Amino acid sequence: MLADGAVALLRDRSVDALNVSALARWMGVTRQALSERLWSSGGTRRRILQLTVVAFADRWAGWVQAALLEDPPVPALPRSAEEVHGLRVWAALVELARGELARGNPDPAAAIVATRELEREVMRDRTTSWLGTDVSDQDVLELGALADGLRADLILSVPRSSFDDAHRLLSRRLEAIRVSTTGIEQQ
Question: N or C: which end of the chain has fewer CB within 10 A?
């Protein structure tokens, strides 16, 4: 429920709106009630960010893993307005985690890093399975970087590319990996 509130606040307002009072209002409880329910003492902002990042990271991981189950395993791209919003929330949480790291709180950043590493691991496993042979670290790095860049473009107010263009670029990269790894071109 905390992650749902954070998602709603980030959609309807801004990163600055993500605080204990706003979350409590969204949940229909008082600030004090929310604080007492979740924490017995201090650190509420830190704890809210940690819980929100972990909860949303779980959703993110499910979304990116589901896309990689397809053949070929093209990394996830946002198709709907809801998915675009989800990517914007993820980007906001990445920035919040960076700020928390600068404040001496490494937990949100650690959750982000673990989630990104999981995506790359699944990307490697699924691409290896699809190819029938190991894929290089460099290929995984390049495929992941291309997916990250295309996602960043697709969440802009006016993206430079469409979903179809982005999907085609990732598909071409996968095909190039197939050819360089197996020597077999698509029929």
Answer: C
Q: How far apart are CA 166 and CA 135, in angstroms?
A: 22
Coil, strand or helix: which one is 172?
Answer: helix
pLDDT tens digits for 26-36? 888 888 777 77
For the segment 166-186, what is each residue's pLDDT rounded down to a tens digit? Answer: 999 999 999 999 999 988 877
Within a 13 Å sphere around the CA of 36, how many CA atoms are in the beta-carbon half?
5
3-state secondary structure of 143: helix
pLDDT in tens, 76-100: 999 998 899 889 889 988 988 998 8
Domain ranges for the chain, please list them: 48-182
Quote the CA–CA distance of 154 and 50 in Å, as a whole number: 27
pLDDT computed for residue 21 by the predictor:
80
Residue environment code for 39-66, b if the CB has 16+ CB neighbours within 10 A, otherwise e: eeeeebebbbbbbbbbbbbeebbebbbe
Contact yes or no for 53/61 (Cβ under 8 A): no
Q: Which of 139, 118, 115, 138 is nearest to 127 (CA)?
A: 139
State the pTM of this model. 0.81
Phi, psi of 29 (to 5 degrees): -130, 170
Enumerate residues 6+ apart whose C-beta is below 8 A from 87: 78, 151, 154, 155
CB 25 within 8 A of CB 12: no
